[in-house]
Description:
- The structure holds two protein chains of two kinds.
- Chain A is α+β, with helices and mostly antiparallel strands.
- Chain A has 20 helices and 19 strands.
- In chain A, a hairpin with a 4-residue loop joins strand 16 and strand 17.
- Chain B has one domain: Rossmann fold (3-Layer(aba) Sandwich).
- Chain B has helices at residues 15-27, 38-44, 64-73, 89-97, 110-125, and strands spanning 8-11, 32-35, 52-56, 80-84, 102-105.
- The A-B interface holds A 510, 513-526, 528-530, 532-533, 536, 540, 543, 547, 550, 553-554, 557, 594, 597-598, 600 and B 13-14, 16-17, 19-21, 23-24, 26-28, 57-61, 63, 83-88, 105-110.
Amino acid sequence: MNWVTILWSMVASAALTLGAIQLMVWFKKRKEWANLFFCLLAVATAVNAANELRMMRAETVEQFAATLRWGHFSILAAIVSLVFFVRHYLRAGRRWLAWTICLMRVSSSLLALLIRDFNYRELTGIRHIHFLGESISIAQGVPNPLMLIGNASLLLLVVFTVDAAVSVWRRGARRSALVVGGSIVFAVLGATVHGLLSVWQIIHSPMVMSPFNIALVLAMGYEITREELRAGQLAVDLRESEAGLQNLFEGTVEGIFRTSPEGKLLFANPAFAKLLGYDSPDDAVASVTHVGLQIWAVPEERSGVLQRLEKEGVVRGYECRFRRKDGTELWVSLSLRPVPGPDGRTAYFYGFVENIDQRKRAEETLKRSERFLAETARLGKVGGWEFDIDTGKQIWTAETYDIHEVDSTYEPTVEKGLAFYTPTSKPIIGQAVKRISEQGEPYDLELEIITAKGHHRDILTIGRADLEHRRIYGFFQDITERKQNEREMAELRLERAHLARVLTVDEISSSLAHEINQPLGAILNNAEAAKILLSQAQGQRGDIPEIIDDIIHDAKRAGDVVRKVRSVMKKGDASFEPLSIHALIDEALTISHSSLVLNDVTLHLELMPDLTYIQGNRVRLQQVLLNLVTNALDVMKDTPSRSLTVRSAMDGPDTVIVSISDSGSGIAESRRTFVFQPFFTTKKDGLGLGLAICRSIIEEHGGRIWADNNPDGGATFSFSLKARREGPA
Amino acid sequence: MGRLSLRFWIVDDDLRFGRSLKRMLNAKGIPAEYFGSGQSFLDSVPPEQSGYAIVDIHMPGCDGFTLLKKMHDLNYDMPVIIITGQASGEARDRAMQNGAVGYLQKPFSEDSLMELVHKQEAERSTP
């Protein structure tokens, strides 16, 4: 078997194959110069193998020498490739060493080409030896020491490689340092020693390098392929993890974004874009050039957060409002983390946002409604409470605490609650609580309490039972003010009634004086006359019976007046009764008679016959009539023609109307609505209460009082009263 | 001042009061005449007539003050005493301002009337 041909051919083809593969790799990744240099190394190895084969088959010395000469170039290519492979692959090796090696090798190759006897001072001939089952040619001659230049370059290559490997080793890539450095040192040293020994014919072997070369190529090929496989795997892993990360970014409901320190949006995930109403993450990134102004609802807030970030390193769950693309705002929970750049300063911020708008709005709505309830409770002074029937444990709202004037540390119980009531209210509420607890009977009471600070308060307390849940609930309302108003109103009413009575008594008494003084004067005169006559002569006593008749008559007359006034006054504050309005008018005019006569007033009565009875209080309605008549007389004092008209009429089946018209100067239109106001008066010495009292009396009777001006001068005061179907029983 | 010269003219719409006053004065021997209204007095008693007019304020048609004014206009010389059933300081002032010599509130006694008249007589006789 001719093994030499087979092996050398195999070396060449293997080297070419590996070279071709790495060339293809280099075409894909042009920046990977190591792959290219490996390719060159492989090609050089293949060419070298071919050369050597040719040399070993040389028939003549010339043939051998030529092949040897040209063979230097493939070795040059291999060494240069190796040097640059080391530099690019290991990223190590001193540059000057590399260039020195190249320079030495180039010069030795050139020398070999130019000087015929570069390897051999004298090439005497070729000899055939048997090698690996084949007959091959080897040179015979005197070796030239000049060729040591080439060998020196190889030694330098070893130094260069060791140096590079050491630095790689130090860098931590020990495996690469050993494989690349070790194989180069071994192969180069091996080839050099073998070359020298065969040239100096110490050993009888062909001067070949291919075994070392192919070992080197295989080792480098192994290393570079392994590296590529690893890189490939890494790339696959990276792609996978990127895809995972991408899925995470795109699938998560959290908005994720990245901004520059200046605030430009650099990255956004779909959730972020969607959250803020952008069409896509790209749209968001393109649109947002300043998150502070465009995204933050309150731009100043961002500066605050960034300052906090600087101090604390990370901000988590910061709740703030972001602005959407359409300008609307939403609440988000924001987490921010700065990412430092190579210079240590913040290169960008990573942010995570969660939509908490609904929660926040719900919170706000809740807060608002709580505030609203509290305000309403405060305004209405309404406090709620409930208690557990079994435990007696009570819950109060804030306002209930305020009503009782206790602070929030107070722990209410039913017993303690009952203790606030006044002695008169306590038994009432006690009974109510007992009944509601036992039978679920609701209560609704106006009672009185004494607060913790000793203030007296009127309260409305309402209780309802929810026996199914064994609880009782209700509310307190502070009605002190209302009660106070009611009391004041009642007092005012009493005062007004009293005042009205005083006024009426005054009016009546002046009329009364006249009506009674008149007969009393006559009685006195008559009595004196009788006394004189009785002391005189007999003859003149004939007049005495007539005198006594007059005395009796006048005394009766005075008695009648007193009776009539009493009939008006005596019923006092008696409740309402059926009354004839005409009888009232008659009484009032009787009392006013003398005033009417004195003032020379012509009285006209236009009374509707068979007028229905009304339901009312005699004295109070009499007050109204007297007041209206007195007013009418007053306003006519300066009028030459004085006439008073009293009318009665029905307005529908249910209303009786009484009007009193005077012939005075009427009421100025601007004053017409005020005349019923208290303390409105046109009189010099009037209190201005008369008409106000009239109105309150008529309104008490469910009627109405009003004033009009007459078409032919003067004013008419009218009031309406409810008609009553039946007369007095 | 002689007793005979004293004379009263009573004007009052209240017949019973007027009659009683006349009766009382007559019983004392003092001449007195009664008139139911101011107009009947003016018609019957001439302005130069002496005596005292006793005039009630409250009278329909022509009240006491109106009569006082009319008497003044018609140059009646007699002093006028105003009487009334109503108690009113205002009425007294008004009466005095209008030239009345006295004011009496009913019921009044014979003494108080006489006292007023005597005082008036004393003032008249001493210029």
